[in-house]
Amino acid sequence: MHAPLGQNRKAGRKRPNILRIGRIAASLCLIAIGGFSLYTMLSDDGLQRTKPPVADRAASPPTDTVQKPPTQSQAANGMPRSDPRSGANVERMVTGDGSVVTKYSPRPRDDHGPALVDAMQVGQDPRMAAMPNESLLEDSQFGRLPVIGPDGRRPMDQYARPWSGARGTRVAIVVSGLGLSQTGTQRAIKELPEEVTLAFAASGNSLQRWMQEARRSGHEILLQVPLEPFDYPANDPGPETLLTSKSPARNIENLHRAMGEITNYTGIMNYLGGRFLSNPDAMEPVMRDIGKRGLLFLDDGSSAQSKTEAVAKGTELPYAFADLQLDGQVDVNAILKRLDELERIAKRNGQAIGVAAAFDESIEAISKWSEEAGMRGIEIVGIAALSTDPKNP
User: Fold this and answer.
1) What CA–CA distance (Å, rounded) separates 134 from 89?
2) Which of 77, 264, 306, 334 has the most CB atoms less than 10 A away?
3) 162-182: per-residue pLDDT in tens?
4) Which domains are present in the chain?
5) 222 near 197, Cβ under 8 Å?
């Protein structure tokens, strides 16, 4: 009782400092985590991704790379089949409707021996029918003239209208004088069946435009060249008429002037020309030039004194003769009767050729007759299909 209150208490144990202990534990955890992270980063456990060498990455093709086809495929009979894309010159062009057209032209083949080819490649792709094959043209002072291509392809082959190939009854109908009348030309292209061949007069108007429209519509076309008739100059076919009194050089010059008016035609057709066609001396150099350019010649059959056949055989010129003038009488019923006669000739001989002018009555009659011709077993073909070709007898 003699000491102050609380000063005589026995000394006891001190309470542990909880905050200090927590700090120590947290420090130990951080040290442990950091040490483990450093260990895993430095150790090689096989899980590290290895980067490919630069050379390997460059050699690997991208996923969108198109693999080129083999140059040849093996046919079932062991004969190599030519791939249309192997060793080919490839051209791509955009047409008027925005579609892309790919054009393949052949290069010399390195392989030896025979190869199967696609026979359906004869003719022109319909999507490109209004566009000339540049390899079949040469520049001249008179415009672009037709020539045989480096591979031997002729304009008469390139621009010919395809047909079935069946040796049935075939008829070719040629409507001439296009380009002389705008309304008549427009109606002929619009209303005539595409199997009908159209012949454009060299002295016509807007020929390039009409040619393109006719080709887009599927027609095979010819170019009409003015030749001297018996009653010239009272009956004048037009400027640059080929005359028996002119030199061969002058006549060929006028021929080239006419040829340069349009492209994409398979051959030449006479416009009048009774006197010229009856004179072999005047004809021979002209027909030889036509043949060397890979074209055919159609004689409209209006001259009984024509020497076309003899001259054509002597110059190896592909040629054809019209069997009938269909519209000597410009009347629909009369023309229909002539078409029936043409059909009888075709059934007797296997083929026949009829020619007409672009009169409204002719267009109406030909359109009407053509609608039923197929049901009677008649195939209407382009004029090139019925030409006599010395190179393909």
Assistant:
1) 13
2) 264
3) 999 888 999 999 999 999 999
4) 169-386 (3.20.20.370)
5) yes
